């Protein structure tokens, strides 16, 4: 492509070192879509005529088909997807093909392709997030009565409905979707026409290109347009955040699937055995998701570090944006798919959750609140219940097994009705402030989510 200036061929080693075709071939459909819009703008500007435009479109469509059927031969010597397609086009249709790159550089071309790619993939991730939310809601509905201990420091704290725990993840994923929606606005800006860095003396109608490609906005600074990768960094951050949310859920699932918790039973289809220990059923999907999150964060770091010291404008370093981007998108889509499938059919062992939730110490805070309602200052109540807990442990008898006389040894504010407090159902029902897990609240939350996910627009 640059034979004019050079006397010797690029060394084979440099070709191997610098090629991106082995991975950026994936941008082919966007490259072709962009070139068709470019041809329209060239025709509009009088650089090519209608017949030439038609030849270009026909040639590009043929190339697309050849790539899709596997007939197309990608050449490493042609470095990247842009030059592979352009060379094939000129070989096919001759002169009009050689006019296509007028007023265009690979710098604005690759920016366009990447934005088109990110646009489509952002939508795909968004929809998978919704599917994952739906899977969690299905599980919540199927086990709407299940109570589990809520933990802090991985120590039993207070009782909650399992659905409350699951809906916490639905909230997290909703924030991820909001972030995607916001990032999408910055992805959805059309860079073509920026040329190598300073536009072109042959002015193309950029609004026409934007319209053809469905962009609501066009970039306003050619130097920024060819070197901006902010939108990729943002997307990689959001993907990392989704990964981190799934990784936290993974950790819960791994704990729950252990014999010690036994809250969840994953289907055989989503677990693996051990080559040595015949009894094992391992939650590999969750472990892999937790593990792959390291990769997602690494991909974000990789891009940020690449961009960090770059002078204006395009530098070849920027070619290094693609592998982390492709990898993160592939992995998060898979993770969301497999996790949705796994959670939708997972079995909750309600006998085990019920046994765990029957731990009377989960109601220690409720006892303190009871004293508060009987006019004991909270700090005092806290200390009274602390002493009562120590006594109960020492006696090896839970709160409900103690007598009122024993309660009264710690405070005379206890009355016969204290035993009503010592009931998980009552305790949950009383947690009715906004955001708390009373069954009425959870029922409302579930219908709110069902309605919202049903009616919410995708990107
Ligand atoms: N393959 C290149 C990339 O991904 C395309 C842009 C090349 N531009 C250049 N001036 N060499 O960044």
Verbal overview:
Helix 3 (28-44) packs antiparallel against helix 4 (50-69), helix 3 (28-44) crosses helix 9 and helix 7 (106-142) packs antiparallel against helix 20. The protein is built from 20 helices and six strands. A two-stranded antiparallel ribbon has the order 1-2. By secondary structure, the chain is mainly alpha-helical. It starts with 11 loop residues before the first helix and ends with a helix. The protein has three domains: 12-102, Fumarase/aspartase (N-terminal domain) (Fumarase C, Chain B, domain 1); 107-195 and 220-350, Up-down Bundle (Fumarase C, Chain A, domain 2), CATH 1.20.200.10; 359-422, Fumarase/aspartase (C-terminal domain) (Ribonucleotide Reductase Protein R1, domain 1). Arginine binds at residues 20, 24, 80, 106-107, 110, 314, 316, 318-319.
Can you lay out the helices and strands and say which pair or pack?
Layout: H1 12-18, H2 21-24, H3 28-44, H4 50-69, H5 81-93, H6 95-99, H7 106-142, E1 147-152, E2 155-161, H8 162-187, E3 189-190, H9 206-213, E4 217-218, H10 222-227, H11 230-256, E5 264-265, H12 284-308, H13 322-345, E6 347-348, H14 350-357, H15 364-373, H16 378-395, H17 404-410, H18 418-421, H19 424-429, H20 439-455
Parallel strand pairs: 3-4
Antiparallel strand pairs: 1-2, 5-6
Helix pairs in contact: 3-4, 3-7, 3-9, 4-5, 7-8, 7-13, 7-20, 8-11, 11-12, 11-13, 12-13, 15-16
Bound molecules: arginine (ARG).
């Amino acid at each position: 492509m640059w034979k004019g200036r050079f006397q010797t061929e690029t060394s084979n080693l440099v070709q191997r070192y610098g090629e991106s075709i082995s991975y950026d071939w994936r941008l082919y459909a966007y490259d072709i879509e962009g070139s068709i819009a470019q041809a329209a703008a060239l025709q509009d500007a009088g650089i090519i005529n209608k017949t030439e435009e038609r030849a270009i479109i026909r040639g590009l469509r043929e190339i697309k088909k050849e790539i899709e059927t596997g007939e197309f031969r990608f050449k490493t010597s042609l470095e990247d997807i842009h030059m592979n397609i352009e060379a094939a086009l000129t070989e096919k249709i001759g002169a009009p093909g050689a006019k296509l790159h007028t007023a265009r550089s690979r710098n604005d071309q690759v920016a366009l392709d990447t934005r088109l790619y990110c646009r489509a993939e952002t939508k795909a991730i968004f929809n998978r997030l919704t599917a994952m939310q739906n899977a969690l809601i299905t599980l919540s509905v199927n086990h709407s009565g299940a109570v589990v201990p809520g933990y802090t420091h991985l120590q039993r704290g207070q009782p909650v409905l399992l659905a409350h725990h699951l809906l916490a993840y639905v909230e997290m994923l909703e924030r991820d979707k909001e972030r995607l929606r916001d990032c999408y606005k910055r992805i959805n800006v059309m860079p073509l026409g920026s040329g190598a860095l300073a536009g072109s003396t042959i002015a193309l109608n950029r609004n026409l290109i934007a319209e053809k490609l469905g962009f609501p906005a066009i970039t306003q600074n050619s130097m920024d347009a060819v070197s901006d990768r902010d939108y990729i960094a943002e997307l990689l951050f959001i993907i990392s955040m989704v990964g981190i949310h799934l990784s936290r859920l993974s950790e819960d699932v791994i704990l729950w699937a252990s014999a010690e918790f036994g809250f969840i039973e994953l289907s055989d289809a989503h677990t693996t055995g051990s080559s040595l220990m015949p009894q094992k059923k391992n939650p590999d999907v969750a472990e892999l998701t937790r593990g792959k999150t390291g990769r997602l964060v690494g991909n974000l770091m990789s891009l940020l570090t690449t961009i960090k010291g770059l002078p204006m404008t395009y530098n070849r370093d920027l070619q290094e944006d693609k592998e982390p981007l492709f990898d993160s998108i592939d992995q998060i889509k898979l993770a969301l798919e497999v996790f949705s499938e796994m959670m939708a059919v997972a079995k909750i062992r309600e006998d085990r959750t019920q046994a765990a939730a029957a731990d009377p110490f989960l109601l220690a805070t409720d006892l303190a609140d009871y004293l508060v309602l009987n006019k004991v200052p909270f700090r005092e109540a806290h200390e009274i219940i602390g002493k009562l807990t120590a006594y109960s442990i020492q006696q090896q008898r839970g709160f409900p097994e103690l007598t009122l006389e024993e309660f009264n040894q710690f405070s005379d504010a206890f009355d016969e009705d204290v035993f009503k407090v010592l009931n998980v159902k009552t305790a949950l029902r009383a947690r009715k402030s906004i955001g708390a897990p009373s069954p009425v609240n959870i029922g409302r939350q579930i219908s709110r989510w069902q309605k919202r996910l049903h009616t919410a627009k995708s990107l």
